[in-house]
UniProtKB/TrEMBL annotation, chain A:
Keyword Iron: yes
Residue span(s) of domain 2Fe-2S ferredoxin-type: 2-78
Signal peptide: none
Species annotation: Kangsaoukella pontilimi
GO molecular function: 2 iron, 2 sulfur cluster binding; metal ion binding; oxidoreductase activity
Pfam families referenced in this protein's UniProt entry, alphabetically: Fer2 (PF00111), Fer2_2 (PF01799)
InterPro entries: 2Fe-2S-bd, 2Fe-2S-bd_dom_sf, 2Fe-2S_ferredoxin-like_sf, 2Fe-2S_ferredoxin-type, Beta-grasp_dom_sf, Diverse_Oxidoreductases
Protein name as it appears in the record: 2Fe-2S iron-sulfur cluster binding domain-containing protein
The keyword Transmembrane belongs to this UniProt entry's keyword annotation: no
Domain of life: Bacteria
Gene3D superfamilies (UniProt xref): 3.10.20.30, [2Fe-2S]-binding domain
UniProtKB/TrEMBL annotation, chain B:
Keywords: 2Fe-2S, Iron, Iron-sulfur, Metal-binding, Molybdenum, Oxidoreductase
InterPro entries to which the protein is assigned, alphabetical: Ald_Oxase/Xan_DH_a/b, Ald_Oxase/Xan_DH_a/b_sf, Ald_Oxase/xanthine_DH-like, AldOxase/xan_DH_MoCoBD1, AldOxase/xan_DH_MoCoBD2, AldOxase/xan_DH_Mopterin-bd_sf, Xanthine_DH_Mopterin-bd_su
Enzyme class: oxidoreductase
Family under the similarity heading: Belongs to the xanthine dehydrogenase family.
Lineage: Bacteria, Pseudomonadati, Pseudomonadota, Alphaproteobacteria, Rhodobacterales
Cofactor field: FAD; [2Fe-2S] cluster; Mo-molybdopterin cytosine dinucleotide; Mo-molybdopterin
Gene transcribed to yield this protein: xdhB
GO molecular function terms listed in the Swiss-Prot or TrEMBL record: 2 iron, 2 sulfur cluster binding; iron ion binding; molybdenum ion binding; xanthine dehydrogenase activity
Iron-sulfur found in the keyword field: yes
Protein name per its UniProtKB record: Xanthine dehydrogenase molybdopterin binding subunit
Domain Aldehyde oxidase/xanthine dehydrogenase a/b hammerhead: 17-124
Tagged with keyword Membrane: no
Organism: Kangsaoukella pontilimi
Coiled coil (residue ranges): none
């Protein structure tokens, strides 16, 4: 067993874990923070994405002890009390989710992008999200949500056609 | 009124904060055990013996269960044809569960499950459609055949005819949340099951059977799934049953989730098909007759394959009136995963078959495929513009003899041709192709006409339970399950509208077999049609009681009472809803009701292929433009325009989400998502590393989606239409656009199989060029 101490969403945390324990297991099983999801188990789908010392990390691809001493931010740490983070709010209002399983990873990924590049183009957003799979939305509303969160205009939808028009 | 508002998903705030709980997120009581299946390493063989010594001795293992340890054969099948939980004497596909490990953790269970020593006498495995046809390996006694007219005669006497064949690959669901279940032992042997399932009643039924319990002793609860797409209609049964067995054996809570590779190896996928066709037509491309041979690879067990194959037959016409048609369908048994429900349920494969024919015929007569498609559409409805009035009065019927009474594709196509600028863009594509040798473009418009209702008629029923509490807040429950599609929100909007109150007063609750019994799977796109109506019925019962109560006090007539804007309007007075509820409670008026709905008008004989299997049709049209690299086969979608029919939408934002997601999933199925089995029957594409799901950068640069805003002519909930499955088939336009691009390379017909991967496109280009 390994002893480790880290900061998760601003709070100091200590735990005893086996050496092979993954960061995502530490978060979900030891700390009971289940907002970080396991989608593919093999570091491809991005559902488990968190920030470690400000860098984007797939939590299923990092050992817990590698995060010893680190500052970890998960989806649970994004809102300020009851006030949603602007990216969270944008995903909610722009329908950037359906089943919601990929959503925490998408939001963590988007947050990292906007930190580096506060006004990304649509093409930059799409390129950045290549490591996050969504099976429900077709990504359109996710891209719109991130544009909105970055304070950029969101393309209007085509007007609804009417049968009698 | 709350209905028709583009409200966000009911759980949106929970999803964006990570608080929404899926089965694997539930905090279980102390001491939960974790499970994993040990699975068959060969596609077909006699299991002589299995040495589990190392499995039992592995760290953290509490127990190991084989078929021999069970007191009866436990059946996980959703069909009448049994499917054992654990393989007995024979194994039938690579990945079939053979034994169950119960251990202290998920990882320990999985590690132990890999340690078995099998002694298996390998038997010849039937893997392909061709092998199964040759061996006569099939479900049902022979092929099903639906006919109208004399197709053979019509083809022979037509001025032109041609034959062809298309292979259509399967598709992995890749719900982001893998299969998961948990079981908690209750007092007196009862069992509480949490399952990521589209069909809680079946989970309840199957667990009860496995434990020799009446159904009343088992309760299944489903709050949400992280995606379903049909993959959680029957494929969750094994996990839920395994959890219940382990919970009973150990007296501890039991939980199981498939690791992603296990999930893709063990569970069923979309059926792959080969469709052969022979078609007779005139110089304009008007079709006189078609013979289809649909060969459907079902895998090792029956599962839902019969209704899937039936639905493929029922969509072999898509939007076209084919005067003479014969569809012959073979349901083939192979030593592969048991193919299962997947969004569209056979409809997409049938539709690809006929769209392929239209594309092929158009190529033969050298016309724009759009014009050939329109020339073969079902006739416009009586009263619609254009055409001969006397002709229009006669409603045309499908090849299964159902009248097409709601055909709106002429108008929809006209509109989309305009808004997508199809004609000018087609000319521009031709011009581009004339100037460029390496990069070629293609464009195609394809329609969708999708039948709405379960073809197994008795499934078209739903129940609901609504409580109004003393404070005017409402608890709503129904048999539908939430998998991301927004069903719960749409139905809550119905409930809020019935009482004329805000949506925040309606509590959405987990699907629970203890609240609403005997429910059908949330499938066949029918979730809001069925459950919306059931909830409406329950609300209206309570509303009627409230109306009688206030009318009597105000000396008015109950039918004059209105529920609007949080008020109850009676005799010129506006009372608050909460006040009326409180007074009604004090006056001992019942504030709780069930509701029930059974879809009217449907009658179906699946053996004869005759009747009205569908309450109505949902329609859509899509134009897709693509570009291909003729040197590599690489391709991408440039632009997509969609016009889709949701009737009078219950929630346009959620419906548009279904359309966009459905299109991308459909296009993915037909372009990049390729399942590859090796010669030993091993699935080699069992993770997203090798199985290419559309990513964010794969979706079209331009995606325009609009709703056709006509009400459903049938009396559905607020005249809306089902939306779950139909948009998936808009993705067929991507396949046909690729065919168009390849066709520009030479004279021959591209003969493109699906998925049209880069390799397929390159091969087709080479065929067409030589």
């Amino acid at each position: 067993m390994e002893s480790l101490s880290l900061t998760v969403n601003g709070k100091p945390v200590s735990a005893e874990v086996e050496g092979r324990t993954l960061l995502v297991q530490l978060l979900r099983e030891t700390l009971g923070m289940t907002g970080t999801h396991v989608g593919c188990d093999t570091s491809q789908c991005g559902a488990c994405l968190v920030h470690v010392n400000g860098d984007v990390v797939k939590a299923c691809t990092m050992f817990a002890f590698e995060a010893d001493g680190a500052e970890v931010t998960t989806i649970e740490g994004m809102a300020d009390g009851d006030d949603l983070h602007p990216i969270q709010e944008a995903f909610r209002t722009h329908h950037g989710l359906q089943c919601g399983f990929c959503t925490p990873g998408m939001i963590m990924s988007a947050a990292a992008l906007l930190k580096e590049n506060p006004k990304p183009t649509e093409a930059e957003i799409r390129h950045h999200l290549e490591g996050n799979i969504c099976r429900c939305t077709g990504y359109h509303n996710i891209v719109r949500a991130i544009l909105a969160a970055s304070g950029q205009p969101v393309p209007e939808r085509t007007a609804t056609a009417t049968a009698d028009a | 009124m709350t209905v028709a508002k583009p409200l966000p998903h009911d759980s949106a705030a929970l999803h964006v904060t990570g608080q929404a709980r899926y089965v694997d997120d539930l905090p279980l009581p102390e001491g939960a055990v974790h499970l994993a299946f040990g699975t068959a390493p060969v596609a077909h063989g006699r299991l002589r013996s299995i040495d589990l010594t190392k499995v039992r001795a592995a760290d953290g293992v509490l127990a190991v269960i084989t078929a021999a340890d069970l007191d009866h054969e436990i059946d996980v099948s959703p069909s009448p044809s049994p499917e054992p939980l654990l393989a007995g004497d024979t194994v039938q596909y690579v990945g079939q569960p053979v034994f169950l490990v119960i251990a202290e953790s998920h990882l320990l269970a999985r590690r132990a499950a890999a340690l078995a020593d099998y002694d298996i006498e390998e038997l010849p495995a039937i893997l392909s459609i061709e092998e199964a046809m040759e061996a006569g390996s099939r479900f049902e006694e022979g092929p099903r055949i639906y006919t109208r007219g004399d197709a053979a005669e019509a083809i022979t006497t037509a001025p032109h005819s041609l034959t062809g064949s298309i292979e259509i690959g399967g598709q992995e669901h890749f719900y982001l949340e893998g299969q998961a279940a948990a079981a908690l032992p209750q007092e007196a042997g009862d069992m509480l099951v949490y399952s990521s399932s589209q069909h809680p009643t079946e989970i309840q039924h199957k667990v009860a059977h496995a434990l020799h319990l009446p159904m009343h002793a088992v309760r299944c609860e489903v709050r949400r799934m992280g995606g379903g797409f049909g993959g959680k209609e029957s494929q969750g049964n094994s996990l839920a049953i395994a959890c219940a067995l382990a919970a009973r054996l150990t007296g501890r809570p039991a939980t199981m989730r498939y690791d992603r590779d296990d999930d893709m190896t063990i569970t069923g996928k979309r059926h792959d098909f080969r469709i052969d066709y022979r078609v007779g037509f005139n110089g304009e491309g008007r079709i006189a007759g078609i013979e289809f041979l649909q060969l459907c690879r079902c895998g090792w067990s029956m599962d839902l394959s019969l209704p899937v194959a039936d639905r493929a037959m029922l969509h072999a016409d898509n939007a076209y009136f084919i005067p003479n048609m014969r569809v012959e369908s073979h349901r083939l048994k192979t030593n592969t995963q048991s193919a299962t429900a997947f969004r569209g349920f056979g409809g997409p494969q049938g539709m690809v078959g006929i769209e392929r024919v239209l594309d092929h015929v158009a190529h033969a007569v050298r016309r724009d495929p759009l014009d050939v498609r329109r020339a073969n559409y079902y006739r416009p409805l009586a009263g619609a513009s254009g055409g001969d009035i006397s002709e229009q009065a006669k409603t045309q019927t499908t090849h299964y003899h159902m009248p097409v009474e709601d055909f709106i594709l002429h108008e929809m196509t006209e509109r989309l041709v305009e808004t997508s600028d199809y004609r000018a863009r087609r000319a521009a594509v031709a011009e581009w192709n004339a100037r460029n040798d390496v990069l070629k473009k293609g464009i195609a418009l394809t329609p969708v006409k999708f039948g709405i209702s379960f073809t197994l008629t008795h499934l078209n029923q739903a129940g609901a339970l609504v409580h109004v509490y003393q404070d005017g807040s409402i608890h709503m429950n129904h048999g539908g399950t939430e998998m991301g599609q927004g069903l719960f929100q749409k139905v809550a909007q119905v409930a809020a509208s019935r009482f004329g109150i805000g949506i925040e007063r309606v509590k959405i609750t987990a699907t629970d077999t203890g609240k609403v019994p005997n429910t059908s799977a949330t499938a066949a796109s029918s979730g809001s049609d069925l459950n919306g109506m059931a909830v409406q019925a329950a609300c209206d019962t309570i509303r009627e009681r409230l109306a009688v109560f206030v009318a009597e006090r105000a000396q008015a007539r109950p039918e004059e009472v209105r529920f609007e804007g949080g008020k109850v309007l009676v005799g010129g007075e506006a009372l608050s809803f909460d006040e009326v509820v409180r007074d009604a409670y004090m006056a001992r008026v019942s504030l709780s009701s069930t509701g029930f709905y059974a879809t009217p008008k449907i009658v179906w004989d699946r053996i004869k292929g005759e009747g009205r299997p569908f309450f109505y049709f949902a329609y859509g049209v899509a134009v897709t433009e693509v570009a291909i690299d003729t040197l590599t086969g690489e391709n991408r979608i440039l632009r997509t325009d969609i016009l889709h029919d949701c009737g009078a939408s219950l929630n346009p934002a959620l419906d548009i989400g279904q359309i966009e997601g459905g299109y991308v999933q459909g296009a993915g199925w037909l372009t990049t998502e390729e399942l590859v089995w090796d010669g030993k029957g091993r699935l080699r594409t069992h993770a997203p590393s090798t199985y290419k799901i559309p990513a964010c950068s794969d979706r079209p640069d331009i995606l325009n989606v609009a709703l056709w805003d006509g009400a459903n002519r049938e009396e559905t909930v607020y005249r809306s239409k089902a939306v779950g499955e139909p948009p998936l088939m808009l993705g067929i336009s991507a396949l046909m656009a690729l065919s168009d691009a390849v066709a520009s390379c030479g004279k021959a017909y591209p003969d493109l199989d699906a998925p049209a991967t880069a390799e397929q496109v390159l091969r087709a280009v080479e065929r067409v060029c030589t």
